[in-house]
Design a protein that fits this description.
Helix 2 packs across helix 3 (46-67) and helix 4 (86-106) packs parallel to helix 5 (122-134). A six-stranded parallel sheet has the order 3-4-2-1-5-6, sandwiched between helices. The longest helix has 22 residues, at 46-67. The protein is 46% helix and 13% strand. The chain has a single domain (24-150, 193-245), classed as Decaprenyl diphosphate synthase-like (Undecaprenyl pyrophosphate synthetase). The protein is built from nine helices and six strands, in the order αβααβαβαβαααββα. It has helices at 7-17, 35-41, 46-67, 86-106, 122-134, 151-168, 173-179, 182-186, 234-246; strands spanning 27-31, 71-78, 110-114, 142-149, 199-202, 221-224. It is α/β, with parallel strands linked by helices. It comes from Cellulomonas iranensis. Its EC number is 2.5.1.-. Homodimer.
Amino acid sequence: MRLPHPLYGLYERRLAASLHPDRVPRHIGVILDGNRRWARDSGLSSATGHRRGADKISDVLQWSEDVGVEVVTLWMLSTDNLARDPEELEHLLRVIEDVVGELAAERRWRVQAVGALDMLPDRTASALKAAQDATADVQGLHVNVAVGYGGRREIADAVRSFLRVHAEAGASLDELAEAFDVEHIAQHLYTKGQPDPDLVIRTSGEQRLGGFLMWQSAHSEFYFCDAYWPDFRRVDFLRAVRAYSQRQRRLGR
C-alpha cells in the first residue's frame, strides 16, 4: 500500500532506523522480475519496460550500500531467456550492455559477470568482460551481474571445471570419484570466494527461484514482493531486509 506524503517518508525512515547493523545480510540476491508485465499494464512496449527496469538498478545498489550489504547478485538474464523472441532479446541485451557499462563507468562498485558467457553474443560477452576488468580494483560493493545464468548450468560448469583441473594434474577417474566432495563444487562456482546469499528477493509476485543460485541458496532466506521490478521502491527493499532481520536462521541445523 502506498502511503501519502509525508507519512510515506516517515514510515520509510522508521523502517531504516529499525535495522540493526548486526542483522543485515552480507549478500543479497535479486531476481529482477516483471519488466514486461509492468510495460503491458502501462500500455508500453517491452523495450520500455526493460529500460525502466535497468534504471532501477543503481537505486537498489545505493540502498544496499546504505544498510551495509557487501555483495549484491542481480539476475538480469537467464539461460531460458535466450530463447525469447529475437527482436526483444536483441533489445534486452543492448539494455544490459548499456547498464553494465554505466555501472562500470561510475567506478563505485566492483562488477563481476556470472553466467555462461559462451552462450551470449560476442558483443554482450565483451561488454560484460570489459566492465569486470574496468572495476577489478574498485573497493566497494561487489555486484554480480548474472547474465546468461542458469543454476543447473552453473553446477554443470563447476563439475566440468573440477574434472578438467584434476585431469590436467594427472588424476585418474577413480581417484576423482573417490576424492570428490561438495566443497569441490563450491570452489568452482561462478561466485567462488564470495559469501552465499543470506537473502534472495524476487519481485512481481512470483514465488519461485527458477534456478537462481541453486547451490548457494541452500540456506538463504527468501522474500517475495508483489511489485513489478520497475515499481520496486526503497520501502519494499527495507521491508525485505527487515523481514530477514526478524527471522531466526537455523542454517540447516
